[in-house]
Design a protein that fits this description.
Helix 1 (59-74) runs parallel beside helix 7 and helix 5 packs antiparallel against helix 7 (217-232). The chain has helices at 59-74, 114-133, 156-164, 173-178, 198-207, 209-213, 217-232, 238-241, 244-247; strands spanning 25-26, 50-51, 96-102, 104-105, 141-152, 180-188, 253-260. The protein starts with 24 loop residues before the first strand and ends with a strand. By secondary structure, it is α/β, with parallel strands linked by helices. The longest helix is centred in the middle third of the chain and has 20 residues, at 114-133. Helix content is 34%, strand content 16%. The model is unreliable at 1-8, 152-180 and 243-261 (pLDDT under 50). The strands form 2 sheets. The chain has a 5-stranded mixed β-sheet. The protein has a two-stranded parallel ribbon with strand order 1-4. It contains 9 helices and 7 strands, in the order E-E-H-E-E-H-E-H-H-E-H-H-H-H-H-E.
């Protein structure tokens, strides 16, 4: 009788480390670097700009995100860092981007407030970008972090009024108790922030609300990267709406929220 031969599947994680068991909740220092911890980020031993240690995406989907990141890198000009440019890397490209997707971040308090949770994940994003990863040569990079299982119950309108220092207006408490917000954070370096302003990030997040609210992670993330690429090339409608007030915020986190039902 004929036999069917199958190709062995390459493991997502390190086959030489059977003890590796990624947690559902992550301390920021524990999150692997996809350029160095290539097995722990679920990328089959290949250097990547996507860290998906819990395999939230399929391997093929993570490849798609990597491809979109490469489009951003190679369609945003050349290195802007002068003597700090890694001239040994012929494929460095222009602006750099990294995506981290995990289930939850670690929160010290058992019942954190929305402000404590927001501050924690924004610190995660900037720490990973600026200290832990350092994928850019001169703060010419951005990092998107998605915590897929972190939810808060308060209204989108309240969040934006709070972030912009505007009056809360006629926000009803019943609305605040009916909505669950999923956080998606973008940390930007000082070379990117004057172009990819808070206005741009906010507008681009709103365009991806449906994808992300339905858990269509790869579609939402890739669409964000696509729109970020356009904005970094001054080809996005948000470039016309940005002001010097927002553009002056550099080296920090631009934050987005999408609504979950």
């Amino acid at each position: 009788p004929s036999r069917t031969h199958t190709t062995p599947q390459i493991p997502r994680h390190n086959p030489g480390d059977p003890t590796w068991n990624p947690p559902r909740q992550w301390y920021r220092d524990m999150i692997p670097d996809p350029q160095r911890d290539v097995w722990k980020c679920g990328r089959r031993g290949q250097k990547s700009f996507v860290c998906d240690p819990n395999n939230i995406l399929s391997y093929a989907q993570a490849d798609q995100v990597d491809q979109q990141i490469n489009i951003l890198r190679h369609s945003t000009g050349g290195c802007r860092c002068g003597k700090d440019c890694p001239y040994n890397l012929g494929d460095y490209g222009g602006f750099q981007a990294t995506v981290v997707i995990i289930p939850r971040i670690y929160l010290e308090r058992a019942n954190p407030t929305k402000e404590q949770r927001r501050k924690t994940i924004s610190k995660y994003a900037e720490y990973l970008r600026d200290e832990h990863y350092e994928h850019g040569a001169c703060n010419d990079d951005l990092l998107i972090i998605v915590a897929t299982e972190d939810r808060l119950k308060y209204s989108y309108d309240h969040y934006h009024h709070q972030m912009r220092g505007l009056p809360r207006g006629k926000i009803q408490p019943m609305v605040m108790n009916k909505r669950r917000d999923l956080y998606v954070y973008t940390a930007t370096g000082e070379e990117i922030s004057p172009i990819l302003t808070n206005v741009c990030v906010d507008q681009i997040y709103q365009m991806q609300r449906d994808y992300l609210s339905q858990g269509q992670w790869v579609d939402g993330i890739n669409s964000m990267l696509h729109e970020y690429t356009a904005a970094l090339n001054f080809q996005h409608s948000c470039n016309n709406n940005s002001t010097s007030t927002y553009g002056a915020i550099v080296g920090g986190c631009a934050v987005g929220v999408v609504i979950i039902g």
